[in-house]
Amino acid sequence: MTEKIKVFKHNSICIDVEGRAVYVDPFEMDETPRDAAFILVTHDHYDHFSPEAIEKVANKNTVLVVPEKMKSKAAEVSAIVGKIEYVNPGMNYDVDGLTFETVAAYNILKPFHPKSASWRNLYYGCKEGS
């Protein structure tokens, strides 16, 4: 299973889901694969939502999935992805065949990841069989 997960810098990973590249929070990408079927962004901090890194992995068919409250920020990259889907925490989704659940997350040790702003921190868990 771990051979299907590629770890990049900081918090950035790519998961091979049935032959489709699913990037989570691409950041400071050295490569320019432009092979993303999906890009999942957990929240709006610069090291999670990086237009420069998104440009390196996205193509005209890429689906960008971001928290609902990131609509204005996501517009910055709308020309380099195929479409943008907006999600909220605590929900199940099926986006173009990728099934996942969003979960609110926060960090009690960091004041810039407060529980009261759970919309900013979404983590995606692909369901078995996706």
Automatic annotation (TrEMBL):
Give TM regions: none
Protein name, UniProt field: Beta-lactamase superfamily domain-containing protein
Please give the SUPFAM superfamilies that the UniProt record associates with this protein.
Answer: Metallo-hydrolase/oxidoreductase
Q: Name the Pfam families on file.
A: Lactamase_B_3
InterPro entries in UniProt: RibonucZ/Hydroxyglut_hydro (IPR036866), UPF0173_UPF0282_UlaG_hydrolase (IPR050114)
Q: Which organism is it from?
A: Pseudobutyrivibrio xylanivorans
